[in-house]
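Slide 14.
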Amino acid sequence: MPSSPATWHVVALAGTALGVGIAAPMSLAQERVPSVFELTGSFASSEVRESSGVAVSRRHAGVLWTHNDSGDDAIVFAVTLGGKVLGRHRVTGATAQDWEDLALGRCPNLRGDCLYIADTGDNEERRPLVTIYIVPEPEPIAARSGARAAAAVWAVSVAYPDGPHDVEAIWVNPDGALELVTKGLSGPIRRYRVAREALKNSMVRAQAVDTLPFMPERLLGRYVTGGAISPNGKRVALRTYTEIFLFHRGADGQLEPDGQPCWLGTREPQGEAVDFLDDDTLVLTSESFLGRHGTIHRVRC
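Slide 15: predicted structure.
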């Protein structure tokens, strides 16, 4: 196990300028290591170079959805746990300015599940509006080679109440509300919410929810790069480059720490995304790094 700090770098504040209370910080002696850390595959195809977001299909067993980071076309890929590309789906009318995460959840105005694509990356924190693209989950296997169009794309422009943020983590609650968590580049790690009904609009202002009880730490790679909610809606995972933070999600939507953070160290030198395979098992994806293909891991903490 790599060395880790005796305690987390945390702050305890009474509130913020937004009037939102900050959760009490966690103080833990040491971090746990995964009980399972299994390499299931890698992205051998040159098409998937930077798996920046991942979502587990609930309709199609063994299928993951992913996308590249900024600089690629607006395409989502259906892949296996082994990394094989099953299908490519172009998101018609979308642009990929800086796609950072992907979630699967209830559609805001249709029956069934939709993919939520987070064009929310903002390294310089200057974008007054970011975009969530919402697409009914396609059939994974493309009927022909190349990328085929995904139908019924809905774009929602999102503003934060306190100005621009770099966001790389989203998930969709069981009630259809969208949650967004900041990366932590320039301050505490904050959580925002957009209600399901609001997602029917073309422009919304996210609601500030709280500030999470751990602070960014450059030396530890502690910047939030992905988020997910379990199928039963009772657990939330936030990942950084080197750790996984697990939370119990209460009926009121509050997040309480679920034990010690899970230390990944350098197992994934460019780890980016996370989702739940089931209520207790996670899947992690990483971008390619120093000539190595991006990887897919099955993890339990």
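Speaker note: The chain has one domain: 36-300.
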